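Preliminary data (for renewal application), protoporphyrin IX containing FE complex.
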Amino acid sequence: MTDQGYAKPIRIFHSIFALCMLAQLAVGHLMDVPEVEGKHEASTSLITAAIAHESHAPVTLSASGAVEESLGFEVHEFLGLTIAGLVLIRLLMAMTSWPGAGWRELFPWLFAEGRSRLIQEFKAQASGWLSLKLAPPEEGETIARTVHGLMILASVVMGISGTRLFFGWSTTAPQTASIEAIAEIHETVVFGLQILIAVHILAVVLHQMQGHNILARIKPNK
Ligand code: HEM
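Predicted structure:
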């Protein structure tokens, strides 16, 4: 796989996916979330404020009495459904024999042989990480592939929980306990995903600085 890099569809997928994901994380932090606080219906005068992630912005009610969705929230919903669709496409790609696409590459820890490769690589490479030195892909890429797989896995959970929230989020009444719990899961997974993405981008920068030119393996225009 090192020679071939990734199959063309994976390369194209990566560009679109990374762009949507980075935009989604930015929008998710900046948007105002339309929500009714307290026990009262939005249509009553007792509604407090729409939750604007930490900033309590003034609430606008629509003619039907629902809290109006901010543009940011609508973009978040649109991007979220797009990402859910993209993740589904990536999972379908994992069923092909395209270079770099399969389950064994994304989730090596599910297979005995993958787990022993992971242990070997960890023993051989972990000491270098302290001095920010990464091994080139030809010396083993099971750990990197595991991080990629975990990003996809986190995106699956984010996509499923986000889609459930899309259909269950209320702008006219406080959220039910189950929707609150799903929102909690959604935010926790997003937090984990951000850490994985930060590690991923740091690893790409370090590989490039150490002359491994891994960007050439994923560039869509090759
Ligand atoms: C500036 C942003 C990014 C850059 C420069 C970048 C770069 C790369 C590179 C060079 C690879 C190939 C690694 C290898 O040689 O094996 C790769 C793979 C991958 N990246 Fe990124 N990446 C970025 C953002 C993201 C984001 C935001 C995500 C998603 C959460 C992501 C998910 C993946 C996945 C899943 C793979 C493996 C390809 C696959 O199996 O679908 N990347 N990335």
